[in-house]
Amino acid sequence: MQPSFDNSRAKLSLLPLLTFVALFLGAGLYLHSQGVDYAFYQLPAPVAILPAIVLAFWLNKTSINQSVETFIKGAGHSNIITMCLIYLLAGAFSAVAGATGGVDAVVNAGLSLIPPAFLLPGLFLIAAVVSTAMGTSMGTIGAIGPIAYAVSIKTGIDPALMAGTIVSGAMFGDNLSIISDTTIAATRTQGCEMKDKFKENLKIALPAALLTVLLLVFLTPEPQAVETKPFEWLLVLPYIFILVLAVMGLNVFAVLFSGIIFAAAVGFAGDYEGGAFVKDVYKGFTDMQEIFLLSMFIGGLSEFIRINGGLEYIAKKIHKLTAALGKFNTKVADQLGIAALVLTSNMCIANNTVSIIVAGPVAKKLAEDSDISPKRSASLLDIFACVMQGSLPYGAQALLLGTTFGINPFEVSMSSFYCFILAITAVTVIVLRRNKA
């Protein structure tokens, strides 16, 4: 039997989630103060959430059997399971396409096409294309970061500016890619199709990217040529293949499965072997282990919050905070509420995917209450999570590039111009298109 709603119970139901955030954030801050590298990634999120789950069981005030059923219902929700299966396939595609040389091919193809006078905007576009194809900002930074550092040394471009340019391009693709875990989380929690979210997102991300390119053209110093390595255009095709299929509206499972087979076929045309293919598929699965487990645990935890009225309580509080704006337009107020919700979540957790999973249920309720389309709420979740993630000096992206370039991560985050431009563009679209949400 579902517990009846009351204000005290609703507030108390949020305590486990706050416990998870406090543990995750607190451990990161402490380890960072001790000078530990990647401090916010030393405590795995699936482990940090376990005490919160135990607390949720205790607060539920029902039998252990009923609490287990509640947890399993949330963890096994169709949206959660679908999301987890998509994670596995996306990981497999990324691993296979990367193992066959696709990432290096895309990077070198882009560098060969960049005129020296447009080095910074060109590298931004390369990072954007690679991250859109790979679906991961960290993978993109890992692949392009060392190349960008070498280019920075050779040309004399400010390292912070170069690093910020790479983060900017990486976050563009992380936000937009149909195989990005942020896209998967946003679309599944809001209940919309990936192609619809992609098109809605593009209306905001593309103008922001164009403005970023113009800014970087202005900031690019005197031109100097950059050496590129040989590459095969054939290896670029798997990324183009899945993007085309996704935009055509093909089922996401079919898109990713076809992409895995296509990437393998391209590899088999060279020296890629069947044994390596099988191992790379499994490696792709294991690469998604953390987010797979966390998604299920968050799903179970969210079910406790839902049945005890926590989601309704948060939605009411956000409605109250945005009441002044609501007098102007309710849709604008609640869209800004969704943005504030995921920004705050990401600032605490320092992981854009996790912040979307945490904020997703409340965002969905806000969207439903104000008749905001699922594709718009999914787009806003993904956009503002990536805005915050790309701007955090303690985010993995800034930390990795800070290490690669030998500079302070704060310098990296302050030079991530695309993230700031994206935030301004998104707010502008919210206000100007307030009746078309």
UniProtKB/TrEMBL annotation:
Compartments in which it is found: Cell membrane
InterPro entries found in the cross-reference section: Na/H_Antiport_NhaC-like_C, NhaC_Na-H+_Antiporter
This protein's name: Sodium:proton antiporter
TM regions (residue ranges): 12-32, 38-59, 80-103, 204-220, 240-270, 291-315, 335-359, 380-400, 412-432
Residue span, Na+/H+ antiporter NhaC-like C-terminal domain: 14-218, 237-431
Protein topology in the membrane: Multi-pass membrane protein
UniProt cross-references to Pfam families, sorted A to Z: Na_H_antiporter (PF03553)
Chief place of localization: membrane
Organism listed in the record: Pseudoalteromonas luteoviolacea DSM 6061
